[in-house]
Amino acid sequence: MRKLTYFIATSVDGFIGDPDGDGNFFITHFLDPEYTQRMCAEYPETVPTHVREHLGLADAAPRHFDAVLMGRGTYDVGFKEGVTSPYGHLEQYVVSRSLTESPDPAVELIGGDVVARVRELKEREGLGIWLCGGADLAGQLVDEIDEFVVKTYPCFLGTGMPMSRAGFGVRPLELTKVETFDGGQIISTYARKDSTG
């Protein structure tokens, strides 16, 4: 059974973007060669298709995920720049109640019961499913997330878009891995304690 992994960048105080959801400052302020090299080697499939060739990853095989699930706001970041298929090397799903037709044949829209659809996707053969963002979608799927890979960047924002809008609940996790980098980034991997995936 495939796992749903919330693979997300965050500030020390748990924000994944500014109040409008823009998280580009993580890339512009907090990437260094050691960290970038590690991310490209371990998670090459999370690099957008139009950037992969520039980083020497055009032919890099996916290691963890072969599908990506995005909320409309996350998808719109690239779409506003003319990128209609941001992860063309993966199965792409966009959850949206407002879009009625996909802007690209490589992108499948999910407009109905996202939990039911994710459960169907998890039953398929393959690698994992990357929950790319954002906070609303993570909130809707919090009970379906099997693993959290949290990339914490050395910054404190004070306010912004939270990691999730799931509402309060004590959801036990098991820390399975921690990596630290000289640039101050920390990658923490957690599994749900009740996960059977």
Automatic annotation (TrEMBL):
Pfam name, any one = RibD_C
The Bacterial bifunctional deaminase-reductase C-terminal domain extends over 2-184
Q: List, alphabetically, the Gene3D superfamilies matched.
A: Dihydrofolate Reductase, subunit A
Name the chain's protein: Dihydrofolate reductase
PANTHER family to which the protein is assigned, alphabetical = 2,5-DIAMINO-6-RIBOSYLAMINO-4(3H)-PYRIMIDINONE 5'-PHOSPHATE REDUCTASE (PTHR38011:SF11), DIHYDROFOLATE REDUCTASE FAMILY PROTEIN (AFU_ORTHOLOGUE AFUA_8G06820) (PTHR38011)
Q: Which organism is it from?
A: Streptomyces bambusae
InterPro entries in the record? DHFR-like_dom_sf, RibDG_C, Riboflavin_Biosynth_HTPR
